[in-house]
Amino acid sequence: MELKAKLDLLQEVHKYYPIGCPHFNNEYSGYKRLLDIVENKINNLLNHIEDDVWASLINELESNNKFRVYNDSYLQFPNLAARIELSKTEAEVSITQTLRITLSLLTNCYTAFIEEKATFSRFNNEANVAPVKLLWYGQKSMSDNESKWLEEVKAKIKDHYPHYTFIKHDLLLNTSIYGGLPHGEDPEDLKPYYSLYSYLFDYIQSPQGFEVIS
Predict the structure, then answer these.
(1) What is the maximum span of the chain, computed from C-alpha positions, in angstroms?
(2) What highest taxon heads this organism's lineage (predicted)?
(3) Band of pLDDT at residue 90, cut at 50, 70 and 90
């Protein structure tokens, strides 16, 4: 199942990106379709035209009043994204746990996982920037409560997007594609490869301390 899902998603990447010619995105018909999808999403937001299905899902996620929900769908990527803040502790090392949800608008797939962000208040470095460690983990590493919350969120997504399939985050993040340039990445800072997640689901601005586990 995972192999088939990966192969299907790789085909979707080739549909929208000229793999092997990373500097020719703007000349590629598939990438022009990607830009049209982003433009349509942003124009609808600017014109206050709501995506009724997505708005309904966000309202349901907010309805339990347990957690703060952030709607990140204003970002210029072909996706619908939200974050649910599960916990936050302030100390010398501040830790925030967030359930991240991302639905791709390039394929009928979504992913959800927990982000644990640790920010160190005491530091001494040349950049004078607080060090950050980021851990993205899935159900195998979740507590019972976290796993329960994830299942509740997946059930709500299935109700609103029955044609969408859940894909594990580590499959997306640990699958590398060479010779392309995902939307949002800087062509002047071209890397040898990017994750499957970066092409179809979201732009990643990861700190140096970034780890992905199942």
Answers:
(1) 50
(2) Bacteria
(3) confident
- Identify the H or E element spanning 117: strand 109-120
Tens-digit pLDDT profile for residues 22-51: 999 999 999 999 999 999 999 999 998 889
Distance CA 103, CA 159 (A): 14
Contacts (Cβ under 8 Å, ≥6 apart) of 113: 99, 100, 136, 137, 138, 169
Q: pTM for this one?
A: 0.91
Burial of 210 (0-12, 13-18, 19+ CB in 10 A): middle
Residue 184 has what DSSP assignment?
T
Least confident of 4-13, 90-99, 190-199: 90-99
Which residues does 140 contact at the CB level (< 8 Å), separation at least 6?
213, 214
Average pLDDT over residues 51-77: 92
Structure tokens of 113?
A: 């996982």
Q: Residue 188 and residue 124: Cα distance in Å, rounded?
A: 30
d(CA 28, CA 32): 6
Element at 114 (helix H, strand E): strand 109-120
Look at residue 25 and give its three-state secondary structure: helix
Residue type, 116: E
> Which amino acid type is present at position 82?
A
d(CA 131, CA 123): 7
Produce one character per residue of 95-130: b if its CB has 16 or more CB atoms within 10 Å, e if not.
Answer: ebbbbbbbbbbbbebbbbbbbbbbbeeeeeeeeeee
